[in-house]
Amino acid sequence: MTEYFYPERMARIILLAMEEVIGREGVHSVLHLSCLASYADEYPAARSDKTFSFKAVTQLQESLEQFYGPQGGRGQLCELDVPASNMVCANMVPCWA
Predict the structure, then answer these.
(1) Parallel, antiparallel, or unpaired for β 5-7 and 50-53?
(2) Nearest-angstrom CA–CA distance, 83 and 23
(3) Where are the alpha helices (DSSP H) in the chain?
(4) Fewer CB in a 10 Å sphere around the end CB: N or C, the chain?
(5) Which of 36, 39, 33, 32 lies closest to 16 in space, CA to CA?
(6) How far apart are CA 63 and CA 75, in angstroms?
(7) CA distances from 33 to 39, 40, 65 (A)
């Protein structure tokens, strides 16, 4: 089975958006719950290296639902949309650059 990966920059944006919505301690709790505690002290660098697995993103989503309950977790995921979108737009590099 093939495993797919996000760039580290995207993982960083996801975690920073989570921090903006649920706070640093909330992110630490979710990372520990999702067995991704290695990212609790230092988020991935803003690089293009594809090392953050799709599975890790799924684990984060599942942990948010487990931590806040099904409805609360989905609500928190919806709240991540605005800060994540803003960060993506702020960090975009034009294809002609």
Answers:
(1) antiparallel
(2) 13
(3) 8-33, 54-79, 81-90
(4) N
(5) 39
(6) 13
(7) 12, 11, 11
pLDDT tens, per residue, the chain with 97 residues = 788 998 898 889 889 888 988 899 999 999 999 999 999 999 998 888 899 999 999 999 899 899 888 888 778 777 777 777 777 777 665 555 4
- The set of residues, in sequence order, having a beta carbon less than 8 Å from that of 76 and lying 6+ positions away, is 21, 22, 64, 68
- Is pTM, for the whole model, over 0.85? no
- Cα separation, 64 vs 52, in Å, equals 18
Q: Which residue has the tokens 């799924």?
A: 58
Residue 91 carries which DSSP code? T
- Determine the Cα–Cα distance for residues 45 and 7; give it in Å rounded to an integer: 9
